[in-house]
Amino acid sequence: MKINESCILEDRGVIYINGPDTKEFLQNIVTNNLDFISENTSIYSSILTPQGKYLFDFILVKHKKGYLIDCEKNELENLIKTLNLYKLRSKIEILNLSNEFVVATISFDKYLSLDKNEEDSILLDPRNKKLGARLISNLEKLHLSLKKLDLKIVDKKIYYEKSYELGIPQINNSKLKDKIFGIECNFEELNAIDFKKGCFVGQENTSRIRLRNKLRRRLMPLKVKEGNIDEGDVIKFNSSEVGKVLIDKPFPFGIIKLNNPNINEFLDKDLTSKKAKINIVNLEWLNL
To answer: For residues 42 and 44, what is the distance between their CA atoms, to the nearest angstrom?
Structure first.
């Protein structure tokens, strides 16, 4: 995205949680630490299964007396159901505000130039600053806000292509459910897990994998050089199985083994699946 451009992410949903027990409720189930949230700082976080496998990922933002959850819209209802399962007797209210609020993005350079708007949440993306910042605005005010910021709206595909190039999946993440551990999604490197805050759902297994050096696989972006791939396709290097396609389109990602053979042996090589020739995109921020 250029400095004068903004993408409106209509495929993102917004949940609002408020009530006297809100912070304690979220702190006990999400992987990150709500103490890191302020009026000027958001956090990236997730909810895992009790075994530590991926369920949902989202961005948490302070809003009035509660928190906004910026999540993939097609998983919003499932996320609300999960939150309600953990609610029990907590004094909280969970609201779907997707008809009232919308998420838009701006470039990192534009974010640095801003006098921060007091009415809207314009916060740097907590995963990677190269993703820029996100504006969560009342739907009626969005276009006025963008006009005040001297921004023109461009195709959201530009933003998602940048995210894909950075190795950060944001579309069809539901295909990761129960197939991959949260820590294998690179959540530690993307600032989604705080190992010092105490318990969260799936914490025991997640910590064990990390402390015992049992992280054997990573979620990596895939570049299809030739042919087509499908979800579930096995990925091979020579005759060795090295991974599997988890998200096939529009931006493909796969779970890739780190050894046997060592991932550094085939990062820049051609791999194959059932009907395609594939490269694994190397990520500069991921220490392999």
So the answer is: 7
Cα within 13 Å of Cα(118), Cβ side: 0
Q: CATH says 5-166 is which class? A: alpha beta
Distance CA 39, CA 118 (A): 10
Q: Which 3 state secondary structure label does DSSP give 249? A: coil
In angstroms, the CA 198 to CA 213 distance is: 20
Could you give the CA distance from residue 236 to residue 244 in angstroms, rounded to a whole number? 9
> What's the rounded Cα separation, in Å, for the pair 266 and 135?
39
In whole angstroms, what is the distance from residue 95 CA to residue 87 CA?
Answer: 13
Model confidence, pTM: 0.95
* pLDDT (tens digit per residue) in 271-288: 999 999 999 999 989 987
Task: Tell me the chain's radius of gyration from C-alpha atoms.
Answer: 19
What's the rounded Cα separation, in Å, for the pair 15 and 60? 10
Residue spans per domain, the chain: 5-166, 216-288
Give the whole-angstrom CA distance, residue 134 versus residue 197. Answer: 26
- Mapped onto helix, strand or coil, the DSSP state of residue 138 is strand
For 192-243, the pLDDT digits (tens) are 999 999 899 999 999 999 999 889 999 999 999 999 999 999 999 998 999 9
Whether residue 41 contacts residue 195, with contact meaning beta carbons closer than 8 Å, is answered with no
CATH architecture of 216-288: Beta Barrel (2.40)
Let me know: does 58 contact 71? Beta carbons within 8 Å: yes
